[in-house]
Amino acid sequence: MKSFIRLSCAVATLALVLSYSPRRATVAAPLPQATTTQTFVATEAILHSPASHNPARRFIAVGTFYDTTVNATYTTSHGYINFGQITLPANAQVHDVRLQLNIYASNAAGIEAYVAKTTSAWDENTSAPWDSQPTFTGDYGGYVFPHYNSNAGPTMVEFDLDVSVLDFLDDAGNEGIALVPVN
Q1: Distance CA 43, CA 156 (A)
Q2: How far is CA 1 from the centre of its chain?
Q3: Could you read off the pLDDT of 128-144 as tens digits, one per residue?
Q4: Strand, coil or helix: what is 132?
Q5: Which pLDDT score is estimated for 29?
Q6: Of 27, 110, 112, 126, which is most buried by a Cβ count within 10 Å?
C-alpha cells in the first residue's frame, strides 16, 4: 500500500514554535524564570516529487501518492518549508522547539516523516526536476501521523524537534527544512 500525508501548503498554516527564557547566572537558589513563547510563520513551502514541483497546489504530499499530473503514477515526494532567519535574544535559553502543521488527509495510520536541514537553494515559484531537487541532511525529529480523513476540514498536529535545529535556522541564508517520509 502506498502511504502519504497531505499537508496545507498555505504558509500561514506552517509554524515553528519556540519556548525560551533568559539565561541567568548561576546562583545558590535560582529564581523562577519567565518563559516566552514565540511563533515563526513559514515564508515559503513547496511539494517536490519526480512528477511535479507545483507551487499552485494547495497541499504538500509527503510520502508516496498517486500523482495524476504526469503519467498517473505513484511517486514519492518531500515537503520543503522555509521560515527565514529565526532570531532570538542573545541570552535566550531555548526549552523546546515544535513544528505545527495542518494535516488535510493521510491514507493510512502510522505514516512517519522526519525533519531534515535543507542544504541547497530552492524557490517555491520555480519548477525544478526531481534529480535537481533541494538536498537535505540530518534528522531533527519526526512524527508518526495518524490516519485522518479531511471531510471535517484540516486538523493541526504539533511535534517536538531537536533544539539543535536552531543551529542553522538562525543563519540569514538558511534554506529551511525538509519534511521527508521514512521508508
Answers
A1: 18
A2: 24
A3: 556 667 889 999 999 88
A4: helix
A5: 55
A6: 112
- DSSP annotation of 88: -
- Cα 31 to Cα 22, 24, 91, 118: the distances in Å are 12, 9, 16, 39
DSSP 8-state assignment for residue 55: T
For the chain, the first-to-last Cα distance in angstroms comes to 12
Distance CA 68, CA 145 (A): 24
Kindly give the residue spans of alpha helices, DSSP state H, lying in the chain.
166-169
Q: pLDDT band for 115, please (50, 70, 90 cuts).
A: very high
Q: Is 39 exposed, middle or buried (0-12, 13-18, 19+ CB in 10 A)?
A: exposed
167: phi then psi, degrees, rounded to nearest 5: -60, -30
- On whether the CB atoms of residues 172 and 179 are closer than 8 A, the answer is no
Distance of CA 70 to the CA centre of its chain: 25
Predicted TM-score (pTM) of this structure:
0.79
- pLDDT digits 0-9 by tens, 143-156: 887 777 666 677 78
- C-alpha to C-alpha distance for 16 and 115, rounded to whole angstroms: 12
Cell of 155: 486538523
Q: Could you tell me how far CA 135 lies from the centroid of its own chain? A: 15
